[in-house]
Amino acid sequence: MYRPAGVRISGSFPIPDTMKAWVLGDPGELVLKDKPVPVPRKAEVLVRIDAVAICATDLEIIYQGPPAMIAGGLPFNKNFTPGHEYMGTVVALGPGVDEFPIGQRVTVEIHAGCGQCKRCRAGMYTACLNYGLNYGEQDKGHRANGFTTDGGFCEYQVNNINTLIAISDTMTDAEATLVVTAGTAMYGLTELGGLVAGESVVVMGPGPIGLLGVAVAKSLGAQPVILTGTRDNRLKIGRELGADHVINVTQENAVEAVRRLTDGVGADYVIECSGAAGAVNDAARMLNRGGKICLAAFPHEAVPVDVANIVRNNIYLFGIRGEGRSATHRAEAFMAQKRFDATKIHTHTFPLEDLPTAIRYAKDRVEDAIKVVVKPQREASARTIAAE
Predict the structure, then answer these.
(1) How far apart are CA 24 and CA 154, in angstroms?
(2) Reported pTM
(3) Which of 3.20.20.70, 3.40.50.720, 3.30.428.10, 3.90.1010.20 is the CATH number of 184-319?
(4) What is the pLDDT of residues 274-298, one digit of tens each?
(5) Taking Cα atoms as reference points, which of 158, 156, 222, 159 lies closest to residue 188?
(6) Are 299 and 200 in contact (CB under 8 A)?
(7) Smallest Cα–Cα separation from 7: which of 165, 125, 156?
(8) Residue 20, Cβ neighbours under 10 Å: how many?
């Protein structure tokens, strides 16, 4: 049984020596294997994973490799377990850890920066200058679970205490996996200035981040909140999450529609979550002079941008990576206060053992899957039953 030296455990949460974990072989090849349960070090805890969501970035990693970077190279055939949007229960404490009790339900941020570079010291740990350096003589202590080290498509994982957000028993497992997605939207609004009450916000792209971007913007008092997209079923969910107006870009010109809805002036902010080739240019033309764009998605190929239009109109352009500046903590507070219902984007749940089917749903959007969650199958504790 699991009893590493210096690690505190509890008889209430027995931990096996090995666990089931999905391991990435060749591109697109996942195999369920037994792996040793990882051991938490200083400033780390062991999390029993209770649920993990599938993100579009997970699919890119599984099939293409980037943005994952294991031991400085592609993740294939390195015994790597992907998956980064997970939650669970703290079941063991590394040496010196007293910030979280054993038994605490938590959701996790992805990134733990090195803590010593210029960006980490400024709170920009998702832009850590030692990103990916966590191996051999290059070990600077950086971790990005599911990107530069093992992720959550397994039964247990270690996490730095700085990546943990305590959650209450009233939040379901599935909802808790969505906190980091809401945190990414919150990070985008933070970089745009944070205080958006009374300001107009356009969200481009009704994927998970875009839909929760609508919810967060509306919770912060933005008026109006406008959502653009190509699928009416997604736009309908955006309405339910607080969008004042929705625009189907296959049926009308989005720039003209935004201008009309803002009395010809243009919007104050745009959060770009679509990754469409012409999105940056459209976003800039939706804005009033001095407006701001946050890029939370990106095209997979280089695209032309009308820089002259951006300069002439004093447009500010920001790019974000992940869930930085502790925005996930603020997003969790909004969700705990029921400011919005993030579960509206959760559509399917599968057992962890059936991850390939879950990935197919996420990849092919079968039956309009938006956010797919997998859960390890184990005997539920009383508190988990109560939470579900």
Answers:
(1) 12
(2) 0.93
(3) 3.40.50.720
(4) 999 999 999 999 999 999 999 999 8
(5) 222
(6) no
(7) 156
(8) 17
